[in-house]
Specification:
By secondary structure, the protein is an alpha+beta fold. The protein is built from five helices and nine strands, in the order E-E-E-E-E-H-H-E-H-H-E-E-E-H.
Length: 168
């Protein structure tokens, strides 16, 4: 995640956020307490920003309500703990293949996922929403894809490291 902030003399302050998933969010807080949220297209590098996808303008009260919701002050999900208890230690998680992941372009077989981590890949949902259930060893990981995995907590932790770093 990259984060920058800049003073905008006579206007307010600008915050620029490049997320791990490759999204760009620009937030301008105006001196009159308005907030503009710009969702931008990603460029080829984290520093490059493309065209605006959407814009939302919030007043002070609306911005504080959104902050409370997104920040988890109003509702904190408990799904993870409940899910683990229901499956007696077996977790099912959804992992996104980030653009900078060393696994992009590599196959399940090449990384030897099951032998290396013990985790199992149940399904893949590509960025274009195309689904593939029980992908075989020839499946190559693509940036922006979401994989559904099953395993114990430590196995999934190892799988996350393997996918991001290309090694355990």
């Amino acid at each position: 995640m990259h984060f920058k902030e800049t003073d905008l003399p006579g206007i307010g302050r600008k915050y620029w956020l490049h997320t791990r998933s490759g999204e760009h969010l620009i937030i301008v807080i105006h001196n009159d307490e308005r907030r503009d949220l710009f969702h931008m297209e990603s460029g080829d590098t984290p520093e490059e920003v493309g065209d605006m996808i959407s814009l939302i303008t919030l007043d002070d009260e609306e911005a504080r309500a959104v902050a409370a919701i997104v920040g988890g002050m109003i509702y904190k999900p408990k799904f993870q703990d409940e899910r683990e208890v229901m499956l007696e230690g077996l977790l099912i998680e959804w992992l996104r293949i980030e653009p900078h992941s060393r696994s992009v372009g590599r196959t399940i077989g090449e990384l030897d996922i099951r032998q290396a981590t013990g985790a199992v890949i149940l399904a893949v949902v590509e960025k274009n929403r195309e689904k593939q259930f029980n992908p075989g060893p020839d499946y190559a990981f693509a940036s922006g894809a979401t994989i559904v995995v099953a395993g114990e907590r430590d196995q999934i932790r190892q799988l996350k490291r393997l996918l991001s770093d290309g090694r355990l």
